[in-house]
Structures are given as structure tokens and as C-alpha cells.
Amino acid sequence: MPLRLRKYYIxxxxxxxxxxxxxxxxxxLGIFSIILFVVFSCKPTYKIETQDYAxxxxxxxxxxxxEYVLFNINPDTTILFxxxxxxxxxxxxxxxxTTFYVAYKLKVEIFNDSPTNSTLIDSLSYTYNDSISNKExxxxxxxxxxxxxxxxxVKLTIKDLYKDNSSxxxxxxxxxxxxxxxxxxxxxLNGFPLFKNNLAENEHFKIKCRDLSLTQLYVRYYNxxxxxxxxxxxxxxxxxxxxxxxxxxxxxxxxxxxxxITLKKEGIYHFQSNPKINDxxxxxxxxxxxxxxxxxxxxxxxLRYLTSKxxxxxxxxxxxxxxxxxxxxxxxxxxxIRGRELIKKFYNRVQDANIYFTSYMEGWKTDRGLIxxxxxxxxxxxxxxxxxxxxxxxxxxxxxxxFVFNKRENPFTDNDFVLTRSPVFKDSWYNAVxxxxx
Length: 438
Fold this sequence. Notes:
Layout: E1 5-11, H1 16-20, E2 37-39, E3 67-74, E4 77-85, E5 101-112, E6 120-131, E7 137-145, E8 150-160, E9 165-175, E10 184-187, E11 206-209, E12 216-222, E13 247-254, E14 257-258, E15 267-272, E16 281-285, H2 296-300, H3 309-316, H4 321-333, H5 336-357, H6 367-375, E17 380-383, E18 387-392, E19 401-407, E20 417-419, H7 426-437
Parallel strand pairs: 1-2, 1-7
Antiparallel strand pairs: 3-4, 4-7, 5-6, 5-8, 8-9, 10-11, 12-13, 12-15, 13-14, 15-16, 17-18, 18-19, 19-20
Helix pairs in contact: 4-5, 5-6
């Protein structure tokens, strides 16, 4: 059954006739579309709210996990693509109907990009309510009128209308030079958005370019090993990233569509229309089966967070990696039953860290991955466009501990957050590790 894409045109601060005169880009997928016209409301004094995002990282809760992509089709128009898994929503069968229905509401808020005065520019909401017969995912497109130049933050809140379940995500939208990551779109061979930039071996894709006059894309390839996160109480000066590529090549482009691309080696692939600047769109290829942990070698590396340097070195040099891992967990747990429980708990967190926190390196290696693996799900998460604050325990309780992660500008990703380290975390860290090791 072909994919079904719902299409929504959203018009802000424009006369309707002006919008319709534009040559709006669409995907020719041969799929059914529904058009809805909504006008933004303007509230220039409104700012990004501080709300609790902890549920976004709590895998044990049944939450909605939509996927979004923002793509600039011209200086004034951006497409928001969304993908919602049917199984994330409550399904009901209305009286007199033979099929199940789902319903959700998506609220879109666009803020100017300012750390000191992030005010609301425009907002909208729309409701989906339809049959889900033979559908696994629900796709939609929303055309946003956001004029360049400028950088913006897009806050997306989705709510299941049949039960109390929602999730919120903040995304960056870059509209400065026409050469940012939002000016490119990673698609499958049919031109449909892939909703990801971590691709597997032999996974074929294309890149859609906003600039239809491009004839080629310059690709920087990096094959780098990145150091895992340092302990939260250890301040280590990081070396600046060397943007000189390990190698480079070109990909042909015709009428805004690249040739078919396959990533032959693991590493970072940075696609650019202008190699003189750092902007572009990045595609990553990590280890096989990523984000899952499937081999003994992959299981050993995260143990560095639980072990001393000497312990880790003894494990890493063992020829039989599986036996070394089994011995570590058996010695740590004291018996096989608890050992199996700890293994499941630890490596589930490693995998979750890969899903939530991957940036230019695997999520478990990042600062947020470090804290998440050892401490678990934070009780409270406050987030704005520039930082996240994780609270373990009750808010305003002196016994609670808080970690602040600041967003770092990175041409490869908008998911790079750095922990504000402090000596006050030392006792808490070793206590948390002791809980694993006792």
C-alpha cells in the first residue's frame, strides 16, 4: 500500500493570493493529500516556556515519539515533515465504524533565535483524526512562511487526543545563507524524507537541495575516534576539532537532486554546496546495528564509566571479550541472576543514550550519555533552545543533584550538549557507581 501524506499549507503575515502565486515545491509521490489552511497568531511578547521534558527520556513510559524534518524550499518557505507511529497513539473504534481511529493535535511555535529574548513570532495548531486501516505511520507536511534571513527555534508539541500523553521537541531552523543543514533534505530513492541522518551500510539515499542550480556537492569525509565523556567533576580542556577532512570527493547534482549515494565506510560525511564555509548537511555511519549494542567489543567500551583505569585495561586486553564481560558482571553482581539484571539495565541505557544523544559521535560517549547511563532517567528536565537542566530528586531539595548541559554550536549537528562540570559532583558520582558495583 503506498504511503499516504497529508499536506497542510500554513500562511503567516501574507495575503492569501500572494501565497498561491508562489511556485511551491511538492514531492511527487502519487499519494493522497488533504489541504488545510491555517493562519498564524502573533504574540510578540511570548517567550519559550520552561516545562518538564523528562518524559522524553523515560523509555519505560509509553510516550509519543514523532520524527520531524525542516527543509527550506526558498527564502520565505520551510516545509515541516512529520512522522508519527500509529502504535504510539491510543486506538479506538467509534460506534458504527468498522476500523480503528487515532487523533492527535500538533502545536507549532516559532521563536526568534536569541538567548536573552527568545520571543514568539508565530504559532499554529492542527488536529489529525482519521482511520488507521493498514497504516503503521502517519505522515504530514506543513508549509511554514518564515522569512529569511535569520535563525529560529521551532517548538513542536504533539498530544494524543484520546489519552493524556504528549511530547515536546525544540528544533533549530537556519535561514541565513541558503547553505545550512535546513537547505538540504536526506531522502530515499523515491524522494521521501528519511527522518534520520544515521545511515547503515549499503543504505542508499539522495540529497534534495534548495538551490536548483547546483551541479555538485562537495563532501568532506572524517574518520575520527572521539574520546568518551570525562567524569563530571574533571575539567579537561578539549582540543578544537580539525575541520580539514581526511579525504574529500564530489557528488553530482541535477535539478536539485543528487545522484544515488552509499556510505562505504564508517565515519562522518559532510555535504556542502560551498566548501569555503563550515555549513552543510551531515550524514553519519556508525557501527553495524547502531544504535543497538550487539558485539562483545561494543559492550566493553562503555564499561569504562564503571571501572578504574587498571580494571578496564585488564578487560580490554583479554582475547576472549565475551568471557571478560561475563566475569566482570558476575564479579560485580555476585550471582548470575543479578548479573543478568545489571547487564540488561546497563546496556539498555547505552542503547537509549545512542537513540537520544547521538551527535557527531555515538550517544553513549557524550556528556548526556555519561550521566544518563550511570544515574538513569532524570526526574525533571528543563530545556530551552540553548541548554538542558537535569534534576535527580525533587526540585528545590538540597539533597537533589542538578546537571546543566549547554548547547554547543556544531556544523555537523544540533544535538551537541556539553556538561558544566564541577568538583561538587565527585561524591555523587562515586556513590552512583557504587550502586552498580555493590
